[in-house]
Amino acid sequence: MNEPFLTIAKDTAFELVIKKSRFICSLKRVNSESAAQEFIKKIQAQNKKANHNCFAYMIGDNDQVQRESDNGEPSGTAGVPILESLQLAKLHNVVAVVTRYFGGIKLGAGGLIRAYSNVTTKAIHQAGLVQRIQQATLNITVSYRQHDPLLYYLKENRLELANEQYGANVVTSVFVDIDQIKATIQDLTNRFNNQLEISEGERRFNELPFEPQK
C-alpha cells in the first residue's frame, strides 16, 4: 500500500522563546523549488534584524527536491533538524523557515538542535495535516426509471456527486478515488445489470483532514 500524500492544511507561523532567544517557524505549502526560494526571501526580508533565517523544504510527489540551510548557525544544528521534522511528519511540498532572534544566552549544539526541531514540529501541529487523494469523475448515463436507485447506491457507497445533466436520460457525474475506479465500475455494472453507460472524465485532487496515528 502506498504512503498517503500528506501536506499541511494551512500556512502558519509558530513562536517559541528559549533562554531569551525567539524561534519563529513559518510554514508554507509550495509546488516548486522557485516558490520555496521566493518564500524564504520574503521571510528574510521581513526579518532583516534577525540573527538567522534557517530553512528546509521538500518538493515533489516523491520528495525529489530536499534542501536545508543552517544560515550561519553551527553546521548541522538548524537546517537538518528542520528537515528531519518535515520528514518525520511525512510532508510533501512544504517549506519551513525558522527565524532566530538571539537572546544573549548560548544554547550549545544540542540545545540548538532541540530548539529548531521543536519549533518546527509545533508549527506543523498548529498547521494541521491533509491527505491529498487523486480522483476521477465517472460520468454515468442512466434512465429516469433507474435514477433514484442510482442516487441511493451513491449515498450508500458514500460517493460524492459532482454534477447532473438532464436530457433524454440523466448523466450523473461522481468523484471516485483513482484506485477504486475499476471496482466501482464493475460494481455499478453488476448492480444495474449492465444497463448503464459509464465513462471516465477529468481528474482532480481532493484533500481530506488527516490525523496521525498515535
Low-confidence stretches: none
The secondary structure category is alpha+beta
Please indicate the percent range of residues in DSSP E strands (runs of 2 or more).
35-45%
Order of helices and strands: EEEHEEHEHEHEEHE
End-to-end distance: 20 Å
* Residues in helices, as a percent range: 25-40%
- Please give the largest β-sheet: 5 strands, antiparallel
Overall 3D shape: elongated
Question: Care to count the β-strands?
Answer: 10
- How big is the Rg? 24 Å
Number of H/I helices: 5
User: On the 0-100 scale, what is the average pLDDT?
Assistant: 95
Tell me what the structure shows.
This protein has 214 residues and is α+β, with helices and mostly antiparallel strands. Helix content is 32%, strand content 39%. The protein has five helices and ten strands; from the N terminus they run βββαββαβαβαββαβ. Helix 2 runs parallel beside helix 3. The protein starts with a strand and ends with a strand. The relative contact order is 0.17.
Give a quick precis of the structure.
Helix content is 32%, strand content 39%.
Produce the secondary structure layout.
Blueprint: E1 5-8, E2 12-18, E3 21-29, H1 33-46, E4 52-59, E5 65-69, H2 79-88, E6 94-101, H3 108-127, E7 129-142, H4 144-156, E8 160-166, E9 170-177, H5 181-191, E10 197-210
Antiparallel strand pairs: 1-7, 2-3, 3-6, 4-5, 4-6, 7-9, 7-10, 8-9
Q: What brief labels describe this structure?
A:
214 residues; alpha+beta; 5 helices; 32% helix; elongated
